[in-house]
Design goal:
Helices cover 33% and strands 21% of the residues. The protein has 509 residues and is α+β, with helices and mostly antiparallel strands. The protein has a domain of 250 residues: ATPase, nucleotide binding domain (Nucleotidyltransferase, domain 5). This is Glycerol kinase.
Length: 509
Amino acid sequence: MTDAHTAGPFIAAIDQGTTSSRCIVFDKDGRIVSVDQKEHEQIFPKPGWVEHDATEIWNNVQEVVAGAIEKGGITAADVKAVGITNQRETTLLWDRNTGEPVHNAIVWQDTRTDALCRELGRNVGQDRFRRETGLPLASYFSGPKVRWMLDNIEGLRERAERGDILFGTMDSWVIWNLTGGVDGGRHVTDVTNASRTMLMNLHTMEWDEKIAQSIGVPMAVLPEIRSSAEVYGEVRDGVLAGVPVASALGDQQAALFGQTCFSEGEAKSTYGTGTFLLLNTGNKIINSYSGLVTTVGYKIGDEAPVYSLEGSIAVTGALVQWMRDQMGLINSAPEIETLAASVEDNGGAYFVPAFSGLFAPYWRSDARGVIAGLTRYVTKAHIARAVLEATAWQTREITDAMTKDSGVELTALKVDGGMTSNNLLMQTLSDFLDVPVVRPMVAETTCLGAAYAAGLAVGFWPDTDALRANWRRAAEWTPHMDAAKRDHEYTFWLKAVERTMGWLEHDES
């Protein structure tokens, strides 16, 4: 007799992330039954280039699925569906007949398409495809990465136009392999991942043939676009053979779903290496004039799509790692909190971590990091405090931009990700945003979102209300900061941001 906690049925979620792949099994209450995880290699062929070996990733996915099922002491019969969530924008081309990738996957952080993006902007600039796609022309997105491979790999364009080559983000690669690969694998992607390629039209939810032509991507390589919650096919082999593959969501959209932000005006922020804040804007496409991207939040089966505004910050958790690994000012990430809490304030110092340029709301690849406001008074504790404040101020800039674009005032912020264990940071966030900050019981909201969407697709959960009922608050922080003080410090932060810009000339970046 198993205890109530591990009695089935279950939903499994595969999270194919930037640094690792994992599988988590969840029960009816959205609680974690078992987890398995495995890191993969980060490949840096040149400065600014980042790649992954897709074959290694697929092997790891199979391993962690088997591992999670074994650790949970369950069988495929107990698993009603499997959902997929993935690092977004990472781009792969593979041969449909052999199943072999034609090149390493080019990772979202990779900047090799910088010059190509400037060239594609022609006389229009970053906004050339923004009205149709919701995205600025930036090296971050997938379309230009596909073009780079077609231009730089001998004979590839001919093979692609012949129909021998398939393109996919990591959701497509995992689903194709799970459902049979060369032997009838389903070549699909979902609307959230498609909306990050710069090739999908947000208004029609279809590939935009004119844009694909402008960027130089043959239509023959593109997967079929499906909703985020429906059965795409069944797992062909391995421990989950016969289980329906029933959801796909890009990781940040999956976190929005896992945080049950199903109503217009609800927002979540995920604090990891970088930070991603998404605001549900309902069935309305809101064009951003404040430097955010417009993206698909999710689409459940044949219901209308739900859109969102997204603000992405390149460096948050990565700044704490940098303090540890490159500066040696702390020995472990949690120490930053102890050090920062040993002083009352930042001592007048501001740290803007524009290490790889600034993402939202500026999109400036010419910016570089700056520490401003230094005097003899400043100690390493003040710098530690400035490091945490940097994450909070960057979040504040995003929420200001969201209010400006959408007219929706933020009422609370749901948070998740590794940095949320830092209580001082969470309190600082609440103070700087002047709203409550709420952390849920299950911090693994990305996997949970993929599980929820798959469960809805197969009727494991009846509707989104049942999912909301699962959401439990673990902690909440409320603002205690004087408004005049907040405004005064924000002014200094914005001054410091200005000083990061124009550091590199165009030909250097």
